[in-house]
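TOKENISED FOLD:
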Amino acid sequence: MLIELTCPSCGGNLELTDDLDIAYCMYCGTKIIVSKPDEAKKIEKIKNYEVLLERAVDAKFYAEALIYCNKILEINSDNIEALMNKAIATFFTMKDDEFQFNKAMRYLESAEKIYPSNNRITDVRKMFEEKHFDKLKELGDQSFDKAIKNDTVSRRFRWGASIPTESIAFPYYQKAMTYYSNAINLKNTDDHILKKIIDITRFTGRKLWGITKQQEKYIKITIERNEKLAYIKKEIHVLEEKTNTKNPSQWEINKLEVKNNELTEFEKFLDEEGYEFKFTQI
């Protein structure tokens, strides 16, 4: 079957077979990309849907955005804009007060398989993780506060004793632990959440939700070391201001009671901050 085209450069009339994707003008030699009628209609549809998609995302109409994403992907399953925006729209479509993190990440992973070196995918993943972490932390705190409010048993008399599962407070503790545990999987260095996990384990008197004594001990040590490091940093800056030097005396540093097993961590901090002083074991 022949199709008629006009050369965009010289205006020459051409007749080509419909199986060609690329042709050259017989008059001026211009390279012509052959768009078949059906293909051209598909491209036009995608462009129209992409305009509507952009407007829906900008207006935060995520349910509507998902409709346009799906329409585009029906035409072209590799369309990067549709894949990315489907992940974003899914993420922000809240379910039970949570972002749909896992589902959105699956869509993002599908996009990454097709476009493995796309920096935008990396940025969106980081945004998902940060927002999801903050939301889990917020929901965990809300559940924890409700548990405390409804916990009628004085906690100071209950170290190691179990709170009854029929207690009004118990499901709130359980929910808070679920939120905190999921958050820790994303960022395991948040002291606030680590402390809450210890509190829940202690208040309920259980090794609940996979928190063992060994894990609890590790969490406590981590918190103590982070608090000590923060204290040391603060005191060193005070000494620096007092002495107007980045080389305060060994005697002044030793007053901060740095333990042997903390030497490496604090020496690294001093080195990064440009201090010449090195700790000696005490």
Remarks:
- The radius of gyration is 31 Å.
